[in-house]
Structures are given as structure tokens and as C-alpha cells.
Records
---
Amino acid sequence: MSDPPPQTRAPHGLGARLALVALALPLAVLAEVSIALFVIWIVGVSTLFVGVGIALLLAAMLGTRLVAGLHRQYASRVLAVPIARPYLRSAPGAGPVRRLSTVLTDPASWRDWAWLLVNATVGFALQILTFTLFIAGVFYLIYPFLWAVTPRQVFSSPFGFYTINHLADALVLVPIGLFFLSLWWLTALPIARGYARLAVSLLAPTKGSALRARVSQLTTSRAETVDTQAAELRRIERDLHDGAQARLVSLGMSLGLAEELLARDPEAARSLLAEARAATTSALAELRDLVRGIHPPVLADRGLDGAVRALALASPLPTTVSVALPGRLPAPVESAGYFAVAECLTNAIKHSRARSIAIDIGHADGRLQLRVRDDGQGGASLAGGTGLSGIQRRLAAFDGQLSLESPPGGPTEVRMSLPCELSSPRTSPSSGTA
């Protein structure tokens, strides 16, 4: 499931009403297209066992979902709420017949078909009403001007029974224009919102489909988390085997040789003990690095604030850190946030050619908000193999979200959020530059 778009304010004012007028005719045309699509559905179902029936149904499916998607976007903007796609997904690698079967058995498809009929009738009438009220209001408001600048026979009888012989007669129509414009002003937004709610009632996910999508998302994120944890365990095992374990084996051999040489060659034994001490130091350093990669001690001691500042201090690029957390976060959330920021910071250092990096951390609406921004060359993508997809999988295990803005030429901004509650108070927000 894609991340829902951020909520915005519902449109209002003159600009919003004029936008609704501009959209009225295109939406009315889509309403008539709905009739054509419904007819194609009927013909396709009637000829399903003929070769042309499958082609017609596939075409109708694509057209219907395109029209429904446009109306979801319209309703989302009018109501200022995100509206997700409710459709079931076909199995990977499914052929046209299997995909068509999924569409025909998908409850959301039947609701789309119902929407085609509703949109072709009620939707068409509502859009034409909004457009007509506005055009009529403007027409009668400027009628005296039109009467004055055109030949008399063109605008001489606006109602068929009221003949205009003088400009004063034309001015009588101005209040009618004001009446229509006032009616349009009062009804444009209510009509749009009612139309949008009607669309939502048929095109938005139902509780059942939302639950199925949620279960599918959790199943996918759980599988990805298990895979990630298995890969992390293999990495730890490999690091232990190739690093600290090898050094400890070498240390044991050096100590054994030193024990044998101690009596007959003290100088050689002393040299082996010095090598053993150096190997011990190296093994401890590798173990510390390994532990830091699993869960940094600074994260446990100083929380997300101190751990991220430690990352910034170690960064070769000027890195600004701004933290506004009113309390301590749960340890799993701190760990996920820390490693997400660390990966973003590593990506920026390695790939962005940036001159500076900014990290912002905050908490709002029960979610940890993370932002990493660099002034580099841009062009990053979630499919670019730079670790962002791994961050997305890590956050998905916590029901987190990641969004990326990285136009060519930069800047690149990664926004992440995790649901969490604060566990202990904090004195004040802090900021600084490393």
C-alpha cells in the first residue's frame, strides 16, 4: 500500500469556487464517459466467451479505474482527506485471464460499476448545475455591457418576453445576475463536497477492504522484517567469524607459543606477548564496532538526540542537527530512527556530492518525525540501490513511512515518521552544528 498523502486544508474562497467551475465541464464529460464505459462492461460480459469479450472487459476495466482514480483525487482535494485505492492485487506473474478474474471478483470493481451509473446521472446534473449558475450569473451581470457594444437585435430579448429598448432596461437584469452569482457562491462548495462524499461512499476502501489491505501490508512487512533480521544475524556471524574470532584464535596461539618460549627464550616470549596485547586491543575494537552496529551504547545512554549528534560529529561534511523532543522515546523506536538517520547520512556522504547536511528530529501527532536534507546533486530514488529501500522496510516494521524528494540538481530531502509515544519528559529542545 502506498503512503497516504499528507492532509491539507479543505479548499474555500473565491479561488476554490472558480476552480470548481473550471472542473465542472471536464467532470460532466467524464460523467458521459461513464455511460460509455458501463455499456462496454455490459457488452464485454455478454461476449465474455468470445475473444472480443475479454478485450472489451480489459479496456473497460482500465477506463473505469482511470475515471474512478480521477474522482478519488478530486474528492481527496475537496474533502482534504487521503483516499486510498481499494483494489485487490493480482498474484505476481498472473496472466490477463487471471487478472481479469481478480477484477471481476473484486468487490471494489462492482462498486466502481455502481459509481458509473451514479456519476452519469447525479454527477452530471450536479456539475452542470454549478456551471450553469456561474455562467448565468456572469451573463446577466454583464448584460448591459453586451447590449451596449453589440447590434440591438443580438441581445434584445433575454427572456423571450422582455424586450430591451434602452440601457436602463438592460440594467434591470443586473440584480438577476447578482442573484445567480450569490446562489452559485452559496451552493458551489456544498455541491462539490456532497459530490465528493458520494464518490467516497462508492470509491473509497470499505472497512473490510481496508482491513484486508492492512493485513496484506503487515504480512509483507513482517516477512521483510524477518528477512532483514536473518540477514543481520548472518552479518554478525560473519563479522565475528572473520574478525574477533580469528583474532582470538591468533591470540591463543601467540600465548601458547609464548608459554613454551618463556623459559628458554624470554625475548621471543616478550615479543609474542606484545603481539598478543596488540591482538587483544584490535579484537576489543572490532567487538566494540560490532556492538555499536547492533545497538550503539550512546543510544542507550543519551537517547536519540545524543546518538544522532555523535553521528554528526563523525561526519566529514558540516552537519546541522536540530532536535525538538519533549521526552525520551521507546528503545525500539529510538533504534529504528537512529539507524534510518545513519543510513541517510551515509548515503548523503557517499553519493550526493553535498557540501552540507541538515538533520531535523521532532515529535508531533503521536509520531516521531525525522528529516535529512542535503544540498547535493539530487537524483536519488527508492529503487536506486542506495539503501533507502532498506530504510523503508525497517520503518515498515513499525508502521512507519518514508517519502523522498530528490529532483535532478538537488536538493535531496528524506522524510520519515514512526508512530510512538513519549516515555519520559525532557527539559527543552536543542540544536547545534557538528
---
Amino acid sequence: MTARPACARLVPMQSQSLPLFPLPTVLVPGAALGLRVFEPRYLDLVRECSRNQSGFGICLLVDDGSGEASAAAAFGTEAVIEDFDTGDDGLLTITVRGRRRFRADTVCVRDNGLQVATVEWLEPDPVEPLRPEHGLLAMLLRGLLEQVGGEHADSLDQRSDDAAWVGWRLTEMLPLSDTQRQQLLQEDDPHVRLDSLLGLLPDAD
């Protein structure tokens, strides 16, 4: 992403603005993520999204060259709020779900410090069957879900042949680095994404 000017009051009709919540993690489509919210700008974000029944963008914080994670990646995922709670420390906690992927063009900053991006939504994943060369990945995912259970285990039998779904669930569950997850998030072709996951397996050679 580029400069961060003050936010204009109006956004051109052909563009769509999306408030951002940069984090040191990658959210992928279909994945759930729990967040503790305490900064005023992000409390404002949650209130705004709840009032408008809209989502916000989660982008990975990356090193901008200074040695610290201080810049947000240009590609991210829209997060929609599914649940609210209050933690033992009295802080607001929310559960969000990854939905659409986006690419941020320009970013501005509101008076309260909240970043708002003009975004382009990426094409949704096509529903295509798993290719034979990716059968190992489906077996791996089945083993993981049978071991840990969770919400996705209930969908395994219906979606284990969906190339995009298998790829996102493995991206979510495998012990990958944030950089690796970000690269997978930016890949548009679900079969190429699966090829990349195959290459990341320890015994892929």
C-alpha cells in the first residue's frame, strides 16, 4: 500500500472503501479468528461495522524495511463479525469469519487513526474438483480434521473434493509461516495454490 493521506469525506462511486485492522497474522476465506479489541479506533470500527452490518479488512503487518512490522500488506481478507463477548479482563472480544479477498489500492487515515482503504475485490474461487495429483492433500486434511475436529470436520465429506476449500483449510491449519500464508492468499488459482502447498510439505521431494 502507498501513502496515508487524511480520509476524504466522499469516496468515488466506482470505488469501495473498507476500514482496515492490520494484524501480525493472515486470515483466509472461511477461517474464524478471535480478536481482543481495546484501542479506541478499533472499538469505533466494531461499532461502525455492527451498525452497518458490514465487514472490515484484515491485512498482514509486514516489515517495511525498518526491521519492524509496521506496514500492511496490500492483499487481505474481509472479516465479518459473528460473535461478541467480554473477556475476564473486561475487554471486548469478537469472533470474525474470513469472507472475500481484496487488494487495497490507496489508504487514508481518519482523525482517530483508523486506516481506510480503497479496495478492489478479487474474483471468488471457482468450485472445481480436486485434481488427482492433489489427492495427498485431501488425505492430509482428512487426517488433520479427524484428529482435531472442529467446525470444518462436519463439512469434510461434502467438500473434500472442492479444490479451493481444501486449499484454504490446509492454509489455515498447517504450521506455515505468515509469509507463506500471505503468498497463498494472493494466489488466484486454487490448483496452483494446491501445487504450492504440495511444495511446502516436508516430504514433498
---
Amino acid sequence: MTKEAIFERISTLIKDQLHKPELTVTTETTLQEDLGVDSIALMEFIISLEDEFGLEIPDEDVEDMTCMGDMLNYLDKRLK
């Protein structure tokens, strides 16, 4: 799976979860500041990512993810 395809999928997931299909999401978009994702919404998003990509994301790895680019890079490495 290409990085572009991964990013497209995670962008769609976060837009669906937030019920905001009009959002513009870039790799620099931060989860908390730009999207207003709280800790509960973040965990729901991580669960969606785990289901979508068929992998488990440990909590300690999530702590290092502050923007969509961090998630993209993490998933790209894990999926290779």
C-alpha cells in the first residue's frame, strides 16, 4: 500500500469519525489543536485504524503521534 493510499484512508476515517466530510486534512494537521480530538475520540480513532489496517497499535506508540503525518509514517513503517 502506498503512503498516499494510507493517508487517504486515515483522512477519510478521521473525517467520518468527526462527522465533518468537508475538513481539509494534511500531514501537518494536528489531532488535538486543529481537529479538537480529545483522548476518548483519539482512542476511538486508533481502534478504527487498527480495524482498518489489521494491526494493533500500542498505547505508548499513540503518545508519540501528534499530527496526521506522525500517524502516516507510523502506519507506513508497520505495514511494510
